[in-house]
């Protein structure tokens, strides 16, 4: 698939996703306001998630990120809407990474709430005011870690500057060959119109392959944050599903309400994950 076609698909998905995100979440906020009196504090979580989804859609539309894999380097390339400095562009890219991590953290909090409501209702006190506000504070820890790693552990170096403009083709037994990744794969996008975060797993120096420890440490932090949130989601999700399926100590109406809210949560999270995955799926280039 050509780079221009890939960009067209990503931009189309962004436009469709932006429209659907605002349409669905504005409708949901309206329903929460008019019919959410019996949802307790859960309506605040739903409203916050909806507002964040719309904010994330705006960030996505502004930065129009491109994920690209070339040889040993993974690029997060953000397209600039305005003329900004390299540092501001880097901050923008790290902020996008923070939004990406927030989507997973908020999904985990939603599943924790449904787990408490269905399996351990006595723990719902941790979702009452003022304890409710501790959850966003807790989410800020992994989100800040993700964004900080993206900014500080993947600095712009001479090697990455060379890589983003002329991607190194690794041939240890031959001379190194370079090709312009933007010109080759994304014709029309100029270096001055993008900012990037480059994940360089290893590189060659004086003909020897060297592992980029700093970047691998950042990848470990990313992996830890993502795997932890997914473990929480799957554990709470499965436990909630099992309890709703087996529990006989509540009325049919209560069980049905739990079932409907759980299905709505699963659908909301699946749509979010699929949408994000479609937009950030990297376009691999052939290793030559």
Automatic annotation (TrEMBL):
Primary location recorded for the protein, binned into one broad class: membrane
One cellular component term from this protein's GO annotations in UniProt: ciliary membrane
Coiled-coil ranges from the UniProt annotation: none
InterPro entries assigned to the protein according to its UniProt record, in alphabetical order: 7TM_GPCR_serpentine_rcpt_Str
Pfam family membership, one: 7TM_GPCR_Str
Compartments, as annotated in UniProt: Cell projection, Cilium membrane
GO biological process: chemotaxis; olfactory behavior
Membrane topology, from the record: Multi-pass membrane protein
GO MF, any single term: G protein-coupled olfactory receptor activity
Keywords: Cell membrane, Cell projection, Chemotaxis, Cilium, Glycoprotein, Membrane, Olfaction, Receptor, Sensory transduction, Transmembrane, Transmembrane helix
Transmembrane domains' residue ranges: 15-32, 44-63, 93-113, 133-154, 220-244
Keyword set includes Transmembrane helix: yes
Superkingdom of the organism of origin: Eukaryota
Biological role: An odorant receptor which affects chemotaxis to the volatile odorant diacetyl. Specifies AWA neuronal cell fate via the odr-7 pathway.
Complex formation: Interacts with odr-4.
Family according to the record: Belongs to the nematode receptor-like protein str family.
Protein name: Serpentine receptor class r-10
């Amino acid at each position: 698939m050509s780079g221009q076609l890939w960009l067209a698909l990503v931009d189309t998905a962004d436009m469709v996703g932006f429209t659907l995100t605002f349409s669905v979440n504005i409708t949901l906020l309206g329903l929460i306001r008019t019919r959410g009196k019996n949802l307790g504090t859960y309506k605040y979580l739903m409203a916050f998630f909806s507002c964040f989804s719309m904010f994330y859609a705006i960030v996505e539309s502004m930065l129009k990120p491109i994920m690209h894999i070339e040889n040993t380097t993974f690029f997060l390339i953000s397209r600039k809407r305005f003329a900004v400095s390299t540092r501001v562009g880097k901050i923008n890219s790290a902020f996008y990474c923070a939004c990406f991590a927030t989507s997973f953290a908020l999904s985990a909090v939603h599943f924790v709430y449904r787990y408490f409501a269905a399996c351990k209702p006595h723990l719902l006190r941790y979702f009452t005011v003022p304890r409710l506000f501790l959850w966003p504070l807790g989410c800020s820890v992994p989100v800040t870690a993700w964004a900080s790693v993206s900014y500080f552990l993947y600095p712009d170096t001479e090697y990455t500057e060379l890589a983003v403009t002329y991607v190194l083709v690794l041939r240890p037994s031959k001379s190194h060959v370079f090709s312009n990744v933007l010109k080759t794969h994304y014709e029309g996008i100029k270096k001055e119109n993008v900012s990037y975060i480059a994940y360089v797993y290893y590189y060659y120096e004086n003909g020897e392959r060297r592992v980029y420890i700093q970047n691998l440490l950042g990848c470990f932090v990313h992996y830890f944050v993502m795997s932890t949130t997914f473990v929480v989601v799957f554990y709470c999700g499965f436990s909630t599903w099992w309890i709703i399926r087996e529990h006989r100590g509540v009325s049919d109406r209560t069980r049905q309400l739990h079932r409907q809210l759980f299905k709505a949560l699963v659908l909301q999270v699946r749509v979010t994950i699929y949408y994000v995955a479609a937009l950030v799926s990297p376009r691999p280039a052939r290793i030559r």
